[in-house]
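Data deposition worksheet. Section B asks for the primary sequence of the deposited chain exactly as it was used as input, without tags or linkers unless they were present during the calculation. Section C holds the resulting structure in C-alpha coordinate form. Section D is free text for depositor observations; keep each observation to a single sentence. Incomplete worksheets are returned to the depositor.
Section A, Depositor: J.P.
Section B:
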Amino acid sequence: MIAERALPCFQGLINAISVSTAHLKFLSTNAQHLLAASLHATIMEHARAISTLVESGNATGSFIVLRSLLEASVDLFNLVSDPTYSEFMHSALLDQQQYLLESLPDEDRSNPYLAEFFEHWNDTQAALTRVRIKLKELKARDIKPLGIRERFKRANRLDLYKVPYAYLCWHSHNNINILEERHLQQTSTGFAITYSRSPDDHDVLLILDTSAGLIANSVAFLYQLLEVPSPSPELEGVMAALDRLRAVWKG
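Section C:
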Protein backbone atom coordinates (compact mmCIF):
# COMPACT_ATOMS: atom_id res chain seq x y z
CA MET A 1 0.00 0.00 0.00
CA ILE A 2 1.29 3.41 -0.99
CA ALA A 3 0.08 4.90 2.30
CA GLU A 4 2.80 3.06 4.21
CA ARG A 5 5.48 4.88 2.20
CA ALA A 6 3.71 8.21 1.83
CA LEU A 7 2.54 8.85 5.40
CA PRO A 8 6.03 9.21 6.95
CA CYS A 9 6.85 11.76 4.24
CA PHE A 10 3.59 13.62 4.81
CA GLN A 11 4.24 13.71 8.55
CA GLY A 12 7.78 14.89 7.82
CA LEU A 13 6.32 17.77 5.80
CA ILE A 14 4.06 18.73 8.71
CA ASN A 15 7.09 18.74 11.02
CA ALA A 16 9.10 20.85 8.56
CA ILE A 17 6.30 23.41 8.45
CA SER A 18 6.18 23.52 12.25
CA VAL A 19 9.92 24.28 12.29
CA SER A 20 9.53 26.90 9.56
CA THR A 21 6.89 28.85 11.49
CA ALA A 22 8.38 28.63 14.99
CA HIS A 23 10.36 31.85 14.55
CA LEU A 24 7.69 33.93 12.79
CA LYS A 25 6.57 37.11 14.55
CA PHE A 26 2.99 38.29 14.14
CA LEU A 27 1.91 41.76 15.26
CA SER A 28 -0.70 41.48 18.00
CA THR A 29 -2.22 44.78 16.85
CA ASN A 30 -2.50 43.73 13.20
CA ALA A 31 -5.84 42.07 12.40
CA GLN A 32 -4.55 40.68 9.10
CA HIS A 33 -1.63 39.01 10.88
CA LEU A 34 -3.81 37.48 13.59
CA LEU A 35 -6.42 36.15 11.19
CA ALA A 36 -3.77 34.76 8.83
CA ALA A 37 -2.05 32.99 11.72
CA SER A 38 -5.40 31.56 12.83
CA LEU A 39 -6.21 30.29 9.35
CA HIS A 40 -2.78 28.68 9.06
CA ALA A 41 -3.23 27.02 12.46
CA THR A 42 -6.59 25.61 11.32
CA ILE A 43 -5.04 24.35 8.09
CA MET A 44 -2.29 22.55 9.99
CA GLU A 45 -4.74 21.03 12.47
CA HIS A 46 -6.74 19.69 9.54
CA ALA A 47 -3.56 18.29 8.00
CA ARG A 48 -2.71 16.42 11.21
CA ALA A 49 -6.26 15.08 11.34
CA ILE A 50 -5.97 13.86 7.76
CA SER A 51 -2.71 12.10 8.60
CA THR A 52 -4.41 10.29 11.49
CA LEU A 53 -7.45 9.38 9.39
CA VAL A 54 -5.41 7.99 6.49
CA GLU A 55 -3.24 6.05 8.91
CA SER A 56 -6.35 4.46 10.42
CA GLY A 57 -7.79 3.68 6.99
CA ASN A 58 -10.63 6.21 7.19
CA ALA A 59 -10.99 7.63 3.70
CA THR A 60 -14.50 8.97 4.38
CA GLY A 61 -13.33 11.35 7.10
CA SER A 62 -10.19 12.29 5.16
CA PHE A 63 -12.12 13.68 2.19
CA ILE A 64 -14.46 15.67 4.44
CA VAL A 65 -11.63 17.25 6.44
CA LEU A 66 -9.71 17.98 3.23
CA ARG A 67 -12.64 20.01 1.93
CA SER A 68 -12.50 22.21 5.04
CA LEU A 69 -8.72 22.50 4.71
CA LEU A 70 -9.12 23.66 1.11
CA GLU A 71 -11.71 26.29 2.06
CA ALA A 72 -9.46 27.65 4.82
CA SER A 73 -6.54 27.76 2.38
CA VAL A 74 -8.52 29.80 -0.12
CA ASP A 75 -9.45 32.25 2.63
CA LEU A 76 -5.78 32.54 3.61
CA PHE A 77 -4.68 33.13 0.02
CA ASN A 78 -7.28 35.89 -0.31
CA LEU A 79 -6.44 37.47 3.03
CA VAL A 80 -2.72 37.72 2.30
CA SER A 81 -3.45 39.27 -1.10
CA ASP A 82 -6.03 41.71 0.29
CA PRO A 83 -6.08 42.86 3.94
CA THR A 84 -9.71 43.99 3.52
CA TYR A 85 -10.76 40.40 2.84
CA SER A 86 -11.38 39.99 6.56
CA GLU A 87 -14.37 42.30 6.14
CA PHE A 88 -15.86 39.93 3.57
CA MET A 89 -15.40 37.13 6.11
CA HIS A 90 -17.13 39.27 8.72
CA SER A 91 -19.95 40.00 6.30
CA ALA A 92 -20.45 36.27 5.75
CA LEU A 93 -20.74 35.70 9.49
CA LEU A 94 -23.24 38.53 9.89
CA ASP A 95 -25.29 37.22 6.97
CA GLN A 96 -25.53 33.79 8.65
CA GLN A 97 -26.53 35.40 11.92
CA GLN A 98 -29.18 37.49 10.19
CA TYR A 99 -30.62 34.40 8.50
CA LEU A 100 -30.96 32.61 11.83
CA LEU A 101 -32.38 35.56 13.74
CA GLU A 102 -34.90 36.49 11.04
CA SER A 103 -36.17 32.91 10.81
CA LEU A 104 -36.93 32.61 14.53
CA PRO A 105 -40.56 33.88 14.44
CA ASP A 106 -41.44 30.95 12.17
CA GLU A 107 -39.66 28.34 14.29
CA ASP A 108 -41.16 25.93 16.81
CA ARG A 109 -40.70 27.46 20.26
CA SER A 110 -40.38 23.99 21.77
CA ASN A 111 -37.13 23.43 19.86
CA PRO A 112 -34.59 23.07 22.71
CA TYR A 113 -31.76 24.39 20.55
CA LEU A 114 -33.56 27.72 20.17
CA ALA A 115 -34.81 28.06 23.74
CA GLU A 116 -32.25 30.68 24.74
CA PHE A 117 -33.26 32.95 21.87
CA PHE A 118 -36.92 32.86 22.91
CA GLU A 119 -36.16 33.20 26.63
CA HIS A 120 -34.26 36.44 25.92
CA TRP A 121 -36.44 37.71 23.09
CA ASN A 122 -35.69 41.42 23.59
CA ASP A 123 -31.95 40.72 23.44
CA THR A 124 -32.51 38.59 20.34
CA GLN A 125 -34.32 41.41 18.58
CA ALA A 126 -31.66 43.91 19.59
CA ALA A 127 -28.97 41.59 18.19
CA LEU A 128 -30.86 41.36 14.89
CA THR A 129 -31.01 45.15 14.69
CA ARG A 130 -27.25 45.41 15.25
CA VAL A 131 -26.55 42.78 12.62
CA ARG A 132 -28.74 44.51 10.05
CA ILE A 133 -27.08 47.88 10.69
CA LYS A 134 -23.59 46.45 10.31
CA LEU A 135 -24.51 44.56 7.14
CA LYS A 136 -25.97 47.75 5.68
CA GLU A 137 -22.75 49.64 6.50
CA LEU A 138 -20.63 46.98 4.81
CA LYS A 139 -22.91 46.79 1.78
CA ALA A 140 -22.57 50.56 1.32
CA ARG A 141 -18.84 49.91 0.82
CA ASP A 142 -19.59 47.07 -1.61
CA ILE A 143 -18.62 44.46 0.96
CA LYS A 144 -21.02 41.55 0.97
CA PRO A 145 -20.92 37.81 1.63
CA LEU A 146 -18.99 35.88 -1.00
CA GLY A 147 -20.18 32.56 -2.36
CA ILE A 148 -17.67 29.74 -2.40
CA ARG A 149 -17.01 30.06 -6.15
CA GLU A 150 -16.34 33.77 -5.75
CA ARG A 151 -13.84 33.04 -2.97
CA PHE A 152 -11.91 30.71 -5.28
CA LYS A 153 -12.14 33.22 -8.12
CA ARG A 154 -10.74 36.06 -6.01
CA ALA A 155 -7.82 33.80 -5.09
CA ASN A 156 -7.22 33.02 -8.79
CA ARG A 157 -7.79 29.32 -8.04
CA LEU A 158 -10.85 28.40 -10.06
CA ASP A 159 -8.80 25.39 -11.17
CA LEU A 160 -9.18 24.01 -7.65
CA TYR A 161 -12.87 24.86 -7.54
CA LYS A 162 -13.92 23.19 -10.78
CA VAL A 163 -12.49 19.74 -10.11
CA PRO A 164 -10.91 19.00 -6.69
CA TYR A 165 -13.39 21.04 -4.65
CA ALA A 166 -16.37 19.66 -6.54
CA TYR A 167 -15.14 16.12 -5.93
CA LEU A 168 -14.66 16.80 -2.21
CA CYS A 169 -18.20 18.18 -2.04
CA TRP A 170 -19.49 14.89 -3.44
CA HIS A 171 -17.89 13.16 -0.46
CA SER A 172 -19.05 15.74 2.10
CA HIS A 173 -22.64 15.72 0.82
CA ASN A 174 -22.84 11.92 0.59
CA ASN A 175 -23.73 11.92 -3.10
CA ILE A 176 -25.20 8.61 -4.23
CA ASN A 177 -22.17 7.74 -6.38
CA ILE A 178 -19.90 8.20 -3.35
CA LEU A 179 -22.15 6.10 -1.11
CA GLU A 180 -22.00 3.29 -3.67
CA GLU A 181 -18.23 3.60 -3.92
CA ARG A 182 -17.78 3.59 -0.14
CA HIS A 183 -20.18 0.93 0.97
CA LEU A 184 -21.31 -1.38 -1.83
CA GLN A 185 -19.23 -4.32 -2.93
CA GLN A 186 -20.20 -6.70 -5.71
CA THR A 187 -20.26 -10.37 -4.67
CA SER A 188 -21.24 -13.58 -6.39
CA THR A 189 -24.69 -13.35 -4.79
CA GLY A 190 -25.32 -9.62 -5.19
CA PHE A 191 -24.12 -6.68 -3.15
CA ALA A 192 -22.55 -6.62 0.29
CA ILE A 193 -22.51 -3.60 2.58
CA THR A 194 -19.04 -2.65 3.79
CA TYR A 195 -17.72 0.08 6.06
CA SER A 196 -14.30 1.39 7.06
CA ARG A 197 -12.88 0.22 3.77
CA SER A 198 -9.24 1.29 3.53
CA PRO A 199 -8.52 3.96 0.91
CA ASP A 200 -7.00 2.70 -2.31
CA ASP A 201 -3.74 4.09 -3.66
CA HIS A 202 -5.55 6.60 -5.89
CA ASP A 203 -7.44 8.03 -2.91
CA VAL A 204 -4.29 8.20 -0.78
CA LEU A 205 -2.45 10.06 -3.54
CA LEU A 206 -5.33 12.52 -4.01
CA ILE A 207 -5.80 13.17 -0.30
CA LEU A 208 -2.15 13.48 0.72
CA ASP A 209 -0.85 15.24 -2.39
CA THR A 210 -3.63 17.86 -2.32
CA SER A 211 -3.19 18.40 1.41
CA ALA A 212 0.57 18.63 1.08
CA GLY A 213 0.44 21.22 -1.67
CA LEU A 214 -2.02 23.35 0.29
CA ILE A 215 -0.10 23.31 3.59
CA ALA A 216 3.16 24.11 1.82
CA ASN A 217 1.45 27.03 0.09
CA SER A 218 0.00 28.11 3.41
CA VAL A 219 3.40 28.66 5.01
CA ALA A 220 4.69 30.28 1.81
CA PHE A 221 1.84 32.81 1.99
CA LEU A 222 2.70 33.54 5.63
CA TYR A 223 6.28 34.25 4.60
CA GLN A 224 4.97 36.58 1.89
CA LEU A 225 2.72 38.39 4.37
CA LEU A 226 5.52 38.86 6.90
CA GLU A 227 8.04 39.78 4.18
CA VAL A 228 10.52 37.11 5.28
CA PRO A 229 13.77 37.57 3.28
CA SER A 230 14.34 35.11 0.46
CA PRO A 231 15.89 32.61 0.13
CA SER A 232 14.85 31.14 3.45
CA PRO A 233 16.48 27.89 4.66
CA GLU A 234 13.31 27.03 6.60
CA LEU A 235 11.05 27.46 3.57
CA GLU A 236 13.50 25.54 1.43
CA GLY A 237 13.25 22.75 4.00
CA VAL A 238 9.47 22.71 3.55
CA MET A 239 9.78 22.47 -0.22
CA ALA A 240 12.35 19.69 0.08
CA ALA A 241 9.96 17.75 2.33
CA LEU A 242 7.18 18.26 -0.24
CA ASP A 243 9.48 16.94 -2.98
CA ARG A 244 10.25 13.83 -0.92
CA LEU A 245 6.55 13.09 -0.59
CA ARG A 246 5.90 13.58 -4.29
CA ALA A 247 8.81 11.31 -5.13
CA VAL A 248 6.75 8.49 -3.60
CA TRP A 249 4.14 8.86 -6.33
CA LYS A 250 6.83 8.49 -8.99
CA GLY A 251 8.42 5.46 -7.31
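Section D:
The mean pLDDT is 95.
The first helix runs from residue 2 to 21.
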